[in-house]
Amino acid sequence: MTRGSTLSAHRLSDLPDRLVVPALPEQTRTPPPAPTALDGFNGVPAAEARHLLLSCLRSPRWAHRVTVHRPYPTLDAVLAASDEAAYDLTASDLAEALAGESLPALSPHAYGAAHMALNAAHAAYEARFGHLFVICLDGVPPHESLDHTLEAIRSRLANDPEEERVVTAEELRRLARARLASLLRTGG
After folding, report:
1. Quick one: residue 110, left, alpha or beta (phi over 0 = left, psi -120 to 50 = alpha)?
2. Would you put residue 139 in left (φ > 0), alpha (ψ -120 to 50) or beta?
3. Which among 50, 147, 160, 175 would be 20 to 30 A from 108, CA to CA?
């Protein structure tokens, strides 16, 4: 005894008015979301991701740590990973990151005396601590950046070298975070 199908086969042509597939109106179809800068960062090869990260902070160890934990679900997640990786930088990692920094540009409208004061403050700082002064000016209005920078240099010159290493590490972390957030918000 052979067993066959218990249902008879139907062809679509046998069901002329019984098959209805409703179509969504064009205006109710949701297009797929456009890829974000974070999607791009998550999807690029590891070497390219490290290269992007090194534009935020010149620490290969930091860049490697942030890269290997991809993909990140949100901008906040990648910023938290950036912070964590920055907190773990050694003294030699910090020195390497500092070597890649440059002095912030002064407004071309600043007076010559302001340029001289800032240059003298930078020179005093470098003579005392042996590295470039870094500061994150994120959130400081541009017209206040010169005063803020000079005040910070003068204040930090009173630190002992270990205290200043901690402050410098924190400023580098803040710089990396601000640069990374900007990179992943703008895609640039």
Report:
1. beta
2. left
3. 175
Q: Model confidence over 21-64: pLDDT tens digits?
A: 555 566 666 777 778 999 999 999 999 999 999 999 999 999 99
Is 37 among the domain residues?
no
Report yes or no on 150 lying in a domain: yes
Kindly state the tokens that stand for 164.
């200043």
Burial grade of 167 (CB within 10 A; 0-12, 13-18, 19 or more): middle
How far is the C-alpha of 129 from the C-alpha of 27, rounded, in Å?
63
> Is 147 inside a domain boundary?
yes
Task: Give the residue numbers spanning the domain of 109.
Answer: 103-171
Residue with tokens 């456009």: 34
Residue 116: inside a domain = yes
| Nearest CA-CA partner of 71 in 48, 47, 38 | 38
